[in-house]
Amino acid sequence: MEKGGRPGPLFAEGMARAKPRSLIEAISEIQILATVVKTGREIPENYLLLDRRIAYFEVGVKGALADGLISALFVPVSMGVLSNLVPIFGTLSPSLFDQLFSVLIAMAYGLGYNVMIGVNLGNCYYGKACRQAIDSIYSAMVTFNILKVILVFLLFHGLHGLLTPHWVHAKAEQLWPAWRVLMNQATALEVQTWILNVREVLLLSSWFVVFSTAVSLIIPRILFVRGSKQAELEHRRNMLYDGY
Fold this sequence. Notes:
Blueprint: H1 23-38, H2 50-82, H3 96-121, H4 128-162, H5 165-179, H6 185-241
Helix pairs in contact: 1-4, 2-3, 2-4, 2-6, 3-6, 4-6, 5-6
């Protein structure tokens, strides 16, 4: 027990500790730990065993993988909207609102996931056990988001290198016997032109993924630092006025 802390067990003996399967469950469990710490009770540094840290790590991995899939699918679409290549709400001339909406769709999951972690766990970033739990989630997110950025960057640049005018034209000629029942030559030429325009969007998309990922990951770190300072001030006030 910490000096001046309140006596008593942290949790009842035999209390079931189900493995957190979602971010909501992980946040709720960490908030309970933080509440215990802020009342002056000590949670041992080794309270979080390996299986628990891995469970938190898995929560972060799931979020990063989902974000990677969404980024690979929707970022090129969003950049296509900004470049007037992909229609949104039935038009190729999007308004400012349409453009912002397309960017929001591309960033929504990753940004929302990280903001949710930062807002809900910022004030919990206090005490060794709580920090270990939060760092397990955040380190997984950082690690796999870096991998996501590398893979998406290589994928988009690889497609940009593949979709050369010569390659697109050659493939169009090979597929023309099958396409001719669906479109005329003028439409087929428009399709080739559209593919070559999308090729240029891929480079912009790769850099947008880098930028959006960096912004998303910085937000929770800032909130952790801010929340940690607030929790420390709260602890000092409790020690001064309440003795814990």
